[in-house]
Amino acid sequence: MPFRRPFALSVLALLPLLAAATGCTPVGAAVGAGAMVATAAAEERGVGGSARDARISLEIIDRFDEEGVLFEGIGATVFDGRVLLTGAVADADLHGKALALAGSVDGVRTIIDRVTVTPNPERGTGPRDALVTAELRKAIMFDPEVLAINYAIEVEDGIVHLLGIAQSERERRRVIAHARGTDFVRGIEDHVLLKTDPRRSEPAAPQAREGRP
Asked: Does the pLDDT value for residue 15 go beyond 60?
């Protein structure tokens, strides 16, 4: 199964898409987009941060697509300017090029590198990973002590990657506990920052990379 590249579109970009996909009038599409704006505004990163992350995602995907099939096995998840790269490539040179391409996008604060180098890069997000994602998302959404909109979840081969902004250490631990309690989870990688973490206010530094633990 081809690797699914998760990304969000900006609110403005979604307006024509909503109208075309659903047959909505422009007013109806605008109402749907308005709800998205309200959701983004409620996030810790705000409307501006959400739009910036959407732009970063799209630019990374565009740069990967320009390279053709070489990077079709890599996925990029962006939250608060932090880019999580997952998937697989055929050799170390391609790995390095993927990191350089992602890091060259304006606004990237850091790269979290979880790309695997393998001669046969046929990795992907399968049905079980999709199930884990859905179950975990549901669990944190229905937890009254967790602001679920502040988290992004990426699951690959049973490994749960958590990105986001926690209101407190207690909230962060609750999200991790939900992940541990989800069926078919083989491991958890916690990339969540507290909302008071000074790294959130640091200028973009794409050369900063977080390797495997």
From this structure: no
Q: Are residues 104 and 162 in the same domain?
A: no
Please state, as a whole number, how many other Cβ atoms lie within 10 Å of the Cβ of residue 210: 15
Report pLDDT digits (tens) over 120-154.
776 556 899 999 999 999 999 999 999 999 999 99
pTM of the model: 0.76
| CATH number of the domain bearing residue 195 | 3.30.1340
